[in-house]
Structure formats: structure tokens, C-alpha cells
Known about the structure:
Residues 1-23 form the signal peptide. The chain is an alpha+beta fold.
Amino acid sequence: MNPTWVQHLLVLGTLLGAGYTSADTAGSWCYEDPKCGPETWAALPQGHCNGTRKSPINIITPAAVHNPHLGVVSLAGYGDAGKLTSMENKGTTVYVHLADGLRLSAQGLPATYTAKSFHLHWGQGAAQPGSEHLINYKSFSMELHIVHTKNNLSMTDALKDPEGIAVLAFFLQATAHARPSHYWDSFTQHLKKVALKGEDTDLDGSFSLRELLGSVDLTRYYRYHGSLTTPNCDEVVVWTVFPDPILVPPGVVSAFPSILSSTDSDTGPRLQNNYRPLQSLGDRQVQASAALRVAPSSSSTPRPAALIPMLISTAAIAWHL
Ligand SMILES: *[C@@H]1O[C@H](CO)[C@@H](O)[C@H](O)[C@H]1NC(C)=O
Ligand SMILES: *[C@@H]1O[C@H](CO)[C@@H](O)[C@H](O)[C@H]1NC(C)=O
Ligand SMILES: [Zn+2]
């Protein structure tokens, strides 16, 4: 065959291939392409992305209602490295499957929740942060989400319960002063084996979730009711957001977008800026845990002793809603 024809056929094949792929993934979503990015999610069939208790949000800390009943979050089994079974590039995030046996319990949660997986959100390296939640309009380099279901429900069943899912959200902040983390280094080494969308790799026990979390204080957190931050944006999530970031060297943060591709091709767009824009809080309330109480600042302010029972009862009422 004439080489020009071969070239034409190749081009035609590529076009057909591309056409097929996009038809095949109709109803799919993305972050960076305006054709399928967050602005289009509300229109997805069967989705809830246009709801009224959406996530992520900006947490305005002085507006959070202090709830003295919100004590330490208790994590059982999170130190067991053998529970992290495999890592997968989903094209929209990097996802770690968790074996059975990680249990979360905490005041304000209606049941014990079982961890099923975790994944991360990021921007474009250390210079461009990509957390989903913001604290007083400040974003962080990355955000880690541990996804749990109530009473070990399957994900499908959890999506039918308004409190079916509990997500623990931890921020990662790149800083040149951070001590090198053997565990995050090992995590980013594994990224190389899942560079392309659809690739997965078994994990080897070189890090546990507790080791990745470092020394984050599990008594200091914000709690609110929201949604998944990816389609279908189901409004079934009890969020627990820890404001004190895990400090990591900048190289950890830049590894994610530089190693991971959002497609099954090396030359495809980088997997980056995979965070949903802020959603409005509406008439919801954010609660602050007991340890986040701000001490009365000066003696010139009248001691708000009379206010305390009122705040407690407000919190208690809110909690029952
Ligand atoms: C989302 O909800 C708003 C307010 O209810 C409505 O005006 C808008 O048309 C909805 N958008 C979509 C895509 O459904
Ligand atoms: C939790 O659910 C998983 C998946 O359905 C199952 O394999 C596991 O045995 C369950 N764990 C308990 C303690 O019931
Ligand atoms: Zn997430």
C-alpha cells in the first residue's frame, strides 16, 4: 500500500478509536477538561452533584460550634501495614484498597465504621496546593481521604443511608523543614508502578495508615454532614476534618502529578488538580471537637458562663437533627 494511505488509515483508526473511547465512557467525569469537569457534574444522570449538603467546604473556624462531647477519634487496626493490599491508578486519583479489620469509632458517629479504601487529592506540585477542604480560606498541598462504611456495609448499601459513609480527611503540607518520611517515600516509590490509568500493584507492608498519618492529633477536628466530592456526589457522608496538616518534604507532593498520568498513555495529561471546587455550606453547621476550644482570651471580657449551657444545648439539638 502507498505509505500516504497507510498514514491516512492510521489517522482514521486513531480518530475512530478516540470516538469509541468517549462514547464508551459517556456519563463519565473529569477534573480539568471543561467538557467533563466539575461544572458539568450537576447534570450527570442519577447524580446528586446539585444537592444541598455538598462537599468540600471552607471551614470558618470562628463560626464552628464547639461541641464538648466530640472527644478523641478512635482508630483500631490502622497500624497494621498488612491491611494495605493494593494501589491503583483510577485516572482521577490514586486509590489504596484496605483489607477488613480497620475500625473507626468516635463520639457523634451513630455506629462503628469500617475503612474500605483511601485516596488523595492534590494540585500541581508543592507550589500549587490542591486540598479539597479549606480552613479559613487556606488550602493545603494535598488531602487524604479514608473512606469508611457504617457497620461494614457494602459501598452500594452505604450510599442508601444518610450517614452510610464516614470520611476522615487529613491534610498534607509540603514544607522544606519537614523531616524525611520513610513511609511517604515508600508510598511515592510505589506510584511508579501505577503511572498509567488502570494499573495496579500489590503493596508490600512497607507502610501502614498510622505511619502515613504521622503525629496528627486525633482530638482536634471539625465535623459536618456532607457529600462525596466525586460523582455521584451522594449526600451520605459524615465528615471528620483534621486541621493540623501532616508535614512532608516538597518532593513527596510533587511526585504525584509528575509520576501519574490521567490516561493509559505516558503522554496523556498528568493526573493533577483533582479536587472539587468549594461548595456552599448553606444552612449547615460545622462542629469543632472538644480539644479545639478556644480559651477565653482576656479577663476584660465577661466570662460567658451563662452562655456555655446554651451552646451545649444548641450543639445537642443540632446533633439530633
Ligand atoms: C441546580 O440547582 C439550582 C437551584 O436549585 C438550579 O437553578 C439549577 O438549574 C440546577 N442545575 C442543574 C444542572 O440541574
Ligand atoms: C466486612 O465486609 C467484607 C466485605 O463484604 C467481608 O469480607 C468481611 O468479612 C466483613 N467483616 C466482618 C467483621 O463482618
Ligand atoms: Zn476524596
